[in-house]
């Protein structure tokens, strides 16, 4: 036996429409970050960890991709491998960052021999960290740098 139309209408009126409708959440990232590294494992690990923390992360595998994104998009922080293979050097990319990303912070991955930028405008926002640091340590440095930049509300 099938339920009557009246009983279906009664049950439907008791249901909350909010439980039946699909509500979309709007995700607003904490900050936009660009990871520039020629090693895919480093790029993907940092991207995954930072996205898990709530950041929007773009990646670049080489200097050509990096320069295109630096000139096109705005980032609050850039993580750059100072020993990129082939193409433009990490130091040259830093000069482009000074021009196209004037407010962005920089976390430079180096082996201790990579020199700090000579451009005075980069010095306050330049943070060097060892290339051998764990991904978690790099992420901690990124979070600390972004928290330091955050405006007081």
Question: Short summary of the structure?
Answer:
Helix content is 41%, strand content 17%. The chain has 153 residues and is of the alpha/beta class. Helix 3 crosses helix 6 (135-149) and helix 4 (63-72) packs parallel to helix 5 (90-100).
Secondary structure blueprint with pairings:
Layout: H1 5-14, H2 17-20, E1 32-36, H3 40-52, E2 56-60, H4 63-72, E3 77-81, H5 90-100, E4 105-110, E5 126-130, H6 135-149
Parallel strand pairs: 1-2, 1-3, 3-4, 4-5
What can you see in these coordinates?
- This protein has one domain (27-149): Rossmann fold, CATH 3.40.50.2300.
- It is 41% helix and 17% strand.
- It has 6 helices and 5 strands.
- Helix 4 runs parallel beside helix 5 (90-100).
- The longest helix is centred in the C-terminal third of the chain and has 15 residues, at 135-149.
- The chain starts with a helix and ends with a helix.
Number of domains: 1
Oligomerization: single chain
Q: How does the overall form come out from the CA principal axes?
A: elongated
CATH architecture label: 3-Layer(aba) Sandwich
Number of strands: 5
CA-based gyration radius: 23 Å
Uncertain segments: 17-21
Q: What's the pLDDT, averaged over the residues? A: 81
The CATH class name reads Alpha Beta
Q: What string gives the helices and strands in order? A: HHEHEHEHEEH
Q: Helical stretch count? A: 6
Main beta sheet strand tally, sense and closure = 5 strands, parallel
Structural class: alpha/beta
CATH-defined topology: Rossmann fold
Question: What order do the strands of the largest sheet run in, or round the barrel if closed?
Answer: 2-1-3-4-5
Separation of the first and last Cα atoms: 63 Å
Helicity range:
40-55%
**CATH evolutionary superfamily:** Response regulator
Strand content: 15-25%
């Amino acid at each position: 036996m099938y339920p009557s139309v009246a009983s279906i209408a009664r049950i439907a009126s008791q249901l909350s429409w909010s439980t039946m409708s699909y509500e979309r959440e709007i995700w607003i990232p904490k900050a936009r970050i660009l990871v520039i590294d020629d090693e895919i494992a480093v790029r993907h690990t940092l991207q995954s960890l930072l996205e898990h923390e709530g950041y929007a992360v773009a990646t670049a595998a080489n200097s050509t991709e990096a320069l295109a994104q630096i000139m096109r998009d705005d980032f609050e922080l850039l993580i750059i491998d100072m020993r990129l293979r082939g193409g433009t050097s990490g130091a040259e990319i830093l000069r482009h960052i000074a021009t196209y990303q004037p407010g962005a912070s920089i976390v430079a991955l180096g082996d201790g021999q990579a020199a700090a930028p000579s451009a005075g405008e980069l010095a306050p926002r330049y943070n060097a960290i060892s290339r051998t640091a764990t991904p978690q340590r790099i992420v901690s440095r990124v979070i600390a740098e972004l928290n330091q930049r955050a405006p007081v509300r």
